Amino acid sequence: MSSQQKLSLRTYQPGSDLRHPALFLRTLREDVANCWELAWQLFVRDLKAQYRQSLLGYFWAFAPPLFNASIFIFLKNSGAIGIDDTGVPYPLFVMSGTLIWQSIVEALMNPGAGMRKAAGMLSKLNFPRESIILSSIWLLLFNVGIRMLILAALLIYYKVEISALTLWFPLSFISLLVLSIAIGTLLSIIGSLYNDVVRALPIVTQFLMFLSPVVYPPREGGFIGFLSSWNPLSPLLTSARQGILGQPQTFLFEISIIIPASFALFIFSWLAFKVVMPRLIERMPS
Q: Which of 107, 151, 232, 259 has its CA at 20 to 30 Å from residue 124's CA atom?
């Protein structure tokens, strides 16, 4: 290092960083600019670890949704459950739903998983903490890319035509991921202190799947319909699937509210993560 190069010194003081908004925004901008290289290294590390010692490798990126879809296809064909008309072949309907849902689950769980993997680094090294969340987003997008290949193959097999309605898919699906990442980031803050979040999240997501129109069409009546109406994931999931299948949109009013709210919550979760992290590290179990 030349004598002209200087190391930046950052001093943490008691109290909220929001007391000095200009300094907080400058620090946030600097950390976001400096987190990309480390985020990429963490992404590569996690990607290799995810498929290390695995004979089937990337198959596990889409095995869970295909397995779940196969169960419901079997149950429907055997007459064990009754599913209302979906407007498309049921295998295509349920597989597209479970592929989208698995991406939601990963978006909810990846930020917390990244925090747990980086726990040792957090207490010993000073680095942009945003790199943890960014690396988890890249890992999510990698697995989403694999699932989109499977979904594209299904669309080709069932001869689904691309139309102007298809444009709703990227808008709704990206908003769905943004909303899930925001919730996952907020949960990662709590989960860093309490393992209850880690243990409860798989159970909650499994229950939430049955409150979302993943394996059945949206329902307006009944107890399930009532609970589903309060689930912000349901309109976006339905909109994304209707877009990819070329069906008319049925939740335009709901998604017009949820989409901007999703991006607002994402910004809030990022700022909350930035504000809380210095104090959170002090309380994290060693």
A: 107
Could you tell me if 62 and 99 are in contact, meaning their C-beta atoms sit under 8 angstroms apart? Answer: yes
Note whether 106 and 181 are within 8 A (CB): no
Q: Say if residues 255 and 172 touch (Cβ distance below 8 Å).
A: yes
Closest by CA position to 50, among listed 183, 112, 139 = 139
Integer Cα distance of 220 and 97 in angstroms: 18
pTM (two decimals): 0.84
Distance CA 124, CA 66 (A): 41
Half-sphere exposure of 125 (CA within 13 A, CB side): 9
Residue ranges of domains in the chain: 31-283
* Residue that is written with structure tokens 């989960």 in the block: 191
pLDDT at 171 over 90: yes
Task: Tell whether the torsion through CA atoms of 148, 154, 155 and 156 is positive or negative.
Answer: positive
Rounded Cα gap, residues 272 and 195, in angstroms? 20
The confidence score (pLDDT) of residue 212 equals 87
